[in-house]
Write a structure and sequence with these properties.
about 325 residues, alpha+beta, OB fold (Dihydrolipoamide Acetyltransferase, E2P), 2 domains, six-stranded mixed sheet, 9 helices, about 30% helix, about 30% strand, binds adenosine-5'-diphosphate, binds magnesium ion
Length: about 325
């Protein structure tokens, strides 16, 4: 199913600034779109509006072209997963997953046996076979989020809305779950909106990334394009480590890995002094003081840096391979 968000505006009572302020975007049928933005930028509000948990003051949400303003949450057929797993603590995994089906109106409710069979199928899909009779307290955080996802999928939703579903988990588990979710999506093909404030997560997971800032859509594009052609200074600054060059002409940015260190005096390179060198795993961050004024940070492979022979205090050339100007 396709979702059109058309000029959506929502201001909460008592606040002066709209939480979402004229957002226009489309999520294609079967697409996985990440909503990426800092805390407070309106991501959750937009997701809740799609789910029917908030009403818009202007604009529309359309499911397959149909305005859903008149449909309450129950009739929108959305699966929702939040950052903090809201599993029922006194129910087993199997009953948690079957819950959405068991509370359907009698006319459309499957039999108990059918619900259990469907729940088992979903548990297999999220790779938790053998955990059916456990309670949430007997699971790890990552396993609980997979149960939450199975529960959301059990009702066969038209749309899957995931609000920082891995946000409370540690980095390693988050990374594993991210890949796992991508594979799951490729198999099931649900139209999915995935909220995150983690740019790496968004870039790795999504078909397209929508960057939201202060209630507005800055840009929506496939990850590679967002990175190569940021439409606004905000997008450029938000995606990865970037330097702003002091130029009178306007905002000019250069990414840390697009600065190469060359011998001082190399034509086209800017004269600089190495101020500090910080190790960051396989990479190093090299802080440079430019002779023309201003500091920039270069990022390079530790072995490449070692090969230059430069250390703190060295006079170097900073060759800027690429800039982004606005
Ligand atoms: P995000 O999910 O990107 O962190 P939110 O959508 O939660 O952002 O919030 C966007 C803005 O709306 C914030 O300024 C937040 O304080 C405000 N806001 C969110 N929910 C409410 C609410 N129920 N009442 C009043 N203000 C709210
Ligand atoms: Mg939020």
């Amino acid at each position: 199913m396709r979702i059109d968000i058309v000029n959506a505006v929502k201001t909460f009572k008592g606040s002066e600034r709209p939480a979402i302020n004229g957002i226009d975007m489309t999520v294609g049928d079967g697409e996985l779109v990440a909503l990426l933005g800092p805390s407070g930028s309106g991501k959750t509000t937009l997701l809740r509006a799609i789910a029917g948990l908030e009403t818009l003051e202007a604009g529309e949400i359309r499911f397959d072209g149909v305005n859903v303003a008149g449909r309450d949450t129950r009739d929108r057929n959305v699966g929702f997963v939040f950052q903090h797993y809201a599993l029922f603590r006194t129910m087993t995994v199997l009953d948690n997953v079957g819950f959405g089906l068991s509370v359907r109106p009698r006319a459309s409710r499957p039999s108990k046996a059918e619900i259990r069979a469907r729940a088992r199928e979903l548990i297999r899909l999220v790779q938790l076979e053998g955990y059916e009779e456990r309670f949430p307290a007997q699971l790890s955080g990552g396993q609980r989020q997979r149960v939450a996802l199975a529960r959301a999928l059990a009702i066969d939703p038209a749309v899957l809305l995931l609000d920082e579903p891995f946000g409370a988990l540690d980095a390693k588990v988050r990374k594993d779950l991210r890949r796992w979710l991508r594979e799951l999506h490729d198999r099931t093909g649900h139209t999915t909106l995935f909220v995150t404030h983690d740019q790496e997560e968004a870039l790795e997971l999504a078909d397209r990334v929508a960057v939201i800032n202060a209630g507005r859509l800055e840009q929506i594009a496939p990850p590679a394009e967002l990175y190569a052609r940021p439409a606004t200074p905000f997008v450029c600054e938000f995606l990865g480590s970037v330097n702003r060059l002091a130029t009178p002409a306007g905002a000019v940015y250069v990414r840390a890995h697009e600065i190469e260190l060359v011998p001082p005096g190399t034509p086209e390179a800017r004269a600089a002094i190495v101020v500090a060198v910080r190790a960051a795993g396989p990479r190093v961050h090299v802080e440079l003081e430019l002779a023309e004024g201003g500091r920039v940070e270069a990022e390079l492979l530790a072995e490449d840096f070692a090969a230059t022979g430069f250390t703190a205090g060295s006079a170097v050339g900073a060759a800027i391979r690429r800039t982004h100007a606005f």
